[in-house]
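Side project, low priority. Logging it here so it doesn't get lost.
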Amino acid sequence: MSDVHMLTGAYALDALQERERTAVEAHCAGCPPCLRECEEFRATAARLGMASTTIPPAALKGRVLDIVRATPRQPPWRLRMSDMGRRAAVRLRRRTLR
């Protein structure tokens, strides 16, 4: 069986087999930090579930497509840039998206 501490996220999502679930529950009964972690994972999963129902503004698709159209396309050989070049490209795109 895996380390119980590594199973708290899967436990919160009800993604464990019976034996692992029982082990996590037994551990959390005597470990307040792990119990709190399980509760936080459940709360986060619930918030993420609600976020997926949010409808983005209608103008967002147009803005994203405008940015894509305005972004110069690089030939495939240019896509293999150095690590420093990759970081610079990420910073430039972040500024463009604002």
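Brief comment: DSSP finds six helices and no strands in the chain.
Revisit when time allows.
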